[in-house]
Amino acid sequence: MENRISSETCQTSLHLPLLDYLAHRMDCTYISNLRFLNKLELRRLIKEIEEIPVGAYSLWEWNDALCYLVHQNVPEKIAESAREKLIYLLKNMIRE
Q1: Number of folded domains in the chain?
Q2: How far apart are CA 51 and CA 58, in angstroms?
Q3: Dihedral angle over CA of 74, 79, 83, 86, nearest 10
Q4: In terms of residue numbers, what domain contains 28?
């Protein structure tokens, strides 16, 4: 059985912005801790992001995460692209 996080869990139940939600899921005390994850933790972060439905967060929030986590300052035009680019760039960080 697939263990996916529903949109309702992401927004309605927790009422957390995307970066706050990710920090919570990663057991980070501060959002800034998300910037200092080791490779194993980055893999876990990617998994967390992959389980979040694109529609659970706005385009702005996906672009905000993209900018904050991987320093990508060029915003995407659709949420799905921002989410996919975030995952792609996080995976590249693991390879470095």
Answers
A1: 1
A2: 16
A3: 10
A4: 7-95
Q: What pTM, to 2 d.p., does this model score?
A: 0.84
Does residue 50 contact residue 57 with C-beta atoms inside 8 Å? no
Separation between Cα atoms, residue 2 and residue 67, nearest integer Å: 30
Helix H or strand E segment including 91: helix 79-95
Asked if residue 2 is part of any domain, the answer here is: no
Per-residue pLDDT at 10 exceeds 60: no
Nearest to 70 by CA among 88, 95, 58: 88
What is the total residue count of the chain?
A: 96
Mean pLDDT computed over every residue of the chain? 89
Q: Is residue 1 domain-resident?
A: no
Q: According to the model, what pLDDT value does residue 6 have?
A: 52
- pLDDT, tens digit, for every residue of 39-89? 999 999 999 999 999 999 999 999 999 999 999 999 999 999 999 999 999
